[in-house]
UniProtKB/TrEMBL annotation:
The lineage of its organism: Bacteria, Pseudomonadati, Thermodesulfobacteriota, Desulfovibrionia, Desulfovibrionales. Pathway: Amino-acid biosynthesis; L-threonine biosynthesis; L-threonine from L-aspartate: step 5/5. Residues 88-389 form the Tryptophan synthase beta chain-like PALP domain. Keywords: Amino-acid biosynthesis, Lyase, Pyridoxal phosphate, Threonine biosynthesis. InterPro entries: Ser/Thr_Dehydratase, Ser/Thr_deHydtase_PyrdxlP-BS, Thr_synthase-like, TrpB-like_PALP, TrpB-like_PALP_sf. Its cofactor is pyridoxal 5'-phosphate. Belongs to the threonine synthase family. This is Threonine synthase. PROSITE patterns: DEHYDRATASE_SER_THR (PS00165). Gene3D superfamilies: 3.40.50.1100. It catalyses: O-phospho-L-homoserine + H2O = L-threonine + phosphate. It comes from the Bacteria.
Length: 466
């Protein structure tokens, strides 16, 4: 395998930690020099191999590396890290929700990964590579560092704690921009947690400087081993639908653009190897508070110019990025995707729509985070605009809903700061109701208390007596 620059096409050895091209500073992707040999193997044989691995008891092949040959066929079994990552369930949307929208779709619940987000896929890839490098070079000390709005830090800290010495983990967070639930995760895993004022983009600038001037392992999606691990999402979706991607559409929040890059890369590989016959349509989704990729693709194709944007507060915190590191990868892979017959789109949604959609999804039995709400809002938007009609959609719910319960609380209590621009719909709000006061309880015997409380509940719910 080798690093390939998306800008100047220079190739570099994987025997060192590289995040940008030493020749021109461009962003890197990983390339398998033997990929042409894989084309000699029939697509059906690849399908059979990956299907048979579902029954494997090999620890290294239980997680994202079920698709070993398509990902990192340079790693030894002893180096592969598996913590239960990958193979998150794809849950068909409830009947009522599908009927209300008028389209069939499902959520892929990435919150059921070990640290409760999709970032575990990338960390399984990065830490497996780091393990191999430590063993090969005999390193006795290596510091990993990442910028994060929450999920990346949780995954980095978890995998770093599992691998242990000589790896130490530092995470850099924007102060006050991470939910308490997400902050608790790296602290609980024992990582060194550092905070700076600003937003994710500010944190990213700092860790990029660290990676350029000090011996550290950068864990953000600038690290192409992260992208490689996240390709597993595409392979799992294809396998879920028996390798048939006809009339399928995927909705993915863009954020730092690493995940949508990885998903396109995975589908491109499968198409080239005839593992799938058709490419699904891919919709990237961005909030109007952080939409540089939407702004780029919304321009006339011949005159497109990319500009970072200044972000505003967003409930989709992981997507609140004004200058995505992986944007050059998006440009390169989107062009290749469309050259192979695929279709790449970007839709913009409003903060109000994101919160409404998250509440609606969870009201119908799903566990969607705000980014999952962003995808559902994107599907609503695409349907209204006539961009999708008869296809089956798979929505990326990137993290567990509990990580963003604070936003749900603000919605129900109507306490969103004005800069979010979110006003709750009363029919979507849910609040606890008091059945009986503490003072009244004290004045009653145990039997009287149970009887009166039950009577109050019956009256509140309109229950009829037997």
């Amino acid at each position: 395998m080798e690093y390939v620059c998306t800008k100047c096409n220079a190739r570099h050895s994987i025997d060192e930690l590289l995040y940008t091209c030493p020749s021109c500073g461009g962003v890197l992707l990983l390339n398998d020099r033997d990929f042409a040999e894989y084309k000699k193997i029939p697509g059906k044989k690849w399908q059979k191999l990956f299907d048979e691995r579902r029954a494997s008891d090999c620890q290294a092949l239980k997680g994202i590396f079920r698709y070993y040959e398509l990902m990192a066929p340079v790693l030894e079994e002893e180096d592969i890290v598996y913590l239960g990552d990958g193979h998150s369930p794809v849950i068909l949307a409830s009947k009522e929700l599908r009927e209300n929208l008028g389209i069939d779709f499902a959520f892929k619940h990435e919150g059921q990964n070990p640290s409760a987000s999709f970032k575990d896929r990338g960390m399984a890839g990065v830490f497996s590579y780091l393990r191999a490098m430590v063993r090969k070079h005999g390193w006795d000390d290596i510091l990993t560092v990442c910028a994060s709005t929450g999920d990346t830090s949780a995954a980095a800290a978890l995998y770093g704690a599992y691998v242990g010495s000589p790896i130490k983990t530092v995470v850099l967070l924007p102060e006050g921009k991470v939910t308490p639930q997400q902050l608790s995760q790296p602290l609980g895993s024992g990582a060194t947690v550092l905070q700076i004022p600003g937003v994710f983009d500010d944190c990213m600038k700092v860790v990029e400087h660290l990676a350029s001037h000090y011996r550290v392992a950068l864990l953000n999606s600038k690290n192409s081993w992260r992208i490689l691990g996240q390709e597993s999402y595409a392979y799992e979706v294809a396998q879920e639908y028996r390798w048939n991607m006809k009339n399928k559409a995927l909705f993915v929040p863009i954020g730092n653009a690493g995940n949508i890059t990885a998903i396109m890369s995975g589908f491109i590989k499968m198409k080239k190897l005839d593992i799938i016959d058709e490419l699904p349509r891919i919709f990237g989704v961005q909030s109007h508070h952080a939409d540089p990729v939407y702004q780029y693709y919304h321009q006339v194709k011949e005159n497109r110019v990319y500009h970072p944007v200044e972000v505003k507060p967003s409930v989709a915190q992981a997507a609140m990025i004004g200058n995505p590191v992986s944007f050059p990868r998006v440009q390169k892979l989107a062009a290749e995707y469309e050259a192979l017959g695929g279709n790449f789109n970007v839709v913009q949604v409003r903060e109000q729509d994101i919160m409404n959609a998250m509440i609606i999804a969870n009201r119908h039995g799903h566990i969607a985070c705000t980014q999952g709400g962003e995808c559902l809002a994107g599907l609503f938007h695409a349907k209204q605009q006539g961009k999708i009609a008869h296809e089956f959609a798979i929505l990326d719910a990137t993290a567990h809903a509990l990580k963003f319960s604070g936003f749900q609380e603000m919605y129900f209590e109507n306490t969103f700061p004005p800069e979010f621009g979110v006003v709750p719909k009363e029919n979507l709000c849910n609040r606890p109701h008091s059945v009986i006061s503490e003072e009244r309880k004290k004045s009653l015997s145990a039997g009287e208390y149970a009887e009166e409380a039950a009577r109050n509940i019956a009256g509140f719910m309109g229950l009829a007596k037997r």
